[in-house]
# Entry
Amino acid sequence: MRDLAQAVGCDESMISKIEAGKVMPSLPMLNKMVHALDRDMASFFGLKIDEYKLVQKPEERLKVPVDALRGGIGVTYERLVPVAAGNLLEANVHVVSPGGEKVDLITHQGEAVGYLVSGTIELTIDDTTYLMNPGDSFFFKAYLTNSYRNVGTDEARIIWVNTPQVH
# Structure
């Protein structure tokens, strides 16, 4: 308890109270504890990868509208990697409606790789724009800004794999 308290910047009695359920930690404090223990938030709450299916049918995948941290419209993420403990990668199918777009100005360390399954998109990495057609792929370092938009008349589907941002 002493080591954890020192690592997160509080006293031992606070850790003891949190452990006993007498005090509810703030989210920033909880995040510090999770990182100090070299865990992730899901495992901290007892979630295990075994609780999730290792194989998912398309209708079973979690579908998330473009996230609040990134701008965009007409984009849905189909999660290929379940939200669970210990995942080192994020992988999604980005489903982009005609005219849909995503703008990601958040940069971090890591990498991104993708494959355009269907549709036509314009992918911009930093200041360079690429016209992509089915079968085209991309790779870039995650410290580069990126965006895309569906410039075709059909839905676009992109398999997108990246290292998640570390908080």
Remarks:
- The domain at 58-162 is CATH 2.60.120.10 (Jelly Rolls).
